[in-house]
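re: that chain from earlier
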Amino acid sequence: MIKVGIIGATGYAGAELVRLLTAHKEAEIVWYGSRSYVGQEYAQIYQNMFQIVESSCLDDNMDKMADQVDVIFTATPQGLCASLISEKILSKAKVIDLSADFRIKDVKKYEAWYGIQHPSPQFVEEAVYGLCEINREKIRGARLIANPGCYPTCSVLSIYPLLKEGILDPSTIIIDAKSGVSGAGRGAKTDNLFCEVHDSIKAYGVTTHRHTPEIEDQLTYAAGQEIQINFTPHLVPMNRGILVTAYASLKKEYETIKPEEIREIYNRFYQNETFVRVLNEGVCPQTRWVKGSNYVDVNFMIDPRTHRVIMMGAMDNVVKGAAGQAVQNMNLMFGLKETTGLKLVPVFP
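^ sequence. v structure.
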């Protein structure tokens, strides 16, 4: 049985980790860490855990936690995990960080986009980017995982096969993405109040969203050349879900490529991936068909007038975009079947 500690167990991603791991046959949560609710019963904070979780919240003493657990999940704001982690901790427990602290290999780039000084740059190179469908073998041997962001996960999985295959003009990539309000976290913010978001949609972080460099880095690795993108996220008045619509021009030599050839590329890349579903021809991904699950639904269309490919993806930002992907990483790190605890049928309605 894998003993688990969670720092940030009372945030949305942390609570989703609790939901998934309480049903995981090979894991046991022994530390519910939370700065805001130390000493309070977890089920008083999340009533859905009444008579399921009987533990109280502990603090975020990562060093002490490492003596009692096999793996630590840090579902915390940027900078916290990096300020707590040490060689001593990593020698005792594996760490899966759900923040951006170790996702970007260029420390100066991280500091510029996030506006903070990196507290532990010595661990950045070692950290493995935990996008399981692409870095599976590296994840298996890792002791520190940088769990990907929600927008990057959906964006990269939607675009990766065609970019890796070399049929897209990398300089033309534009990503339009929409997310539910849970993506902003559980903290009280005026912009996220019901009256502020209900019956409205807005773009935010235009040209400045912090997931931009993360997406660019991963697409750069896929293309083998430096890539810059236009990435614009939007806030949608729903609890969960991300929808990505990405656009790119075909390279001139591929302007006559047939849809069935592109479909073959997607099928080849994802034929053995349980959690990436390539939809049937003409079916556009929808967030309602992945809600509460670890699935990412992807598809594409070609615009013959403009010679552009429209690549689409939908997923649950709290599951595959955070907690579910973290559990998927844990499974790989501990030699378990990757789908353990994650075969969740999407919830509808």
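The mean pLDDT is 97.
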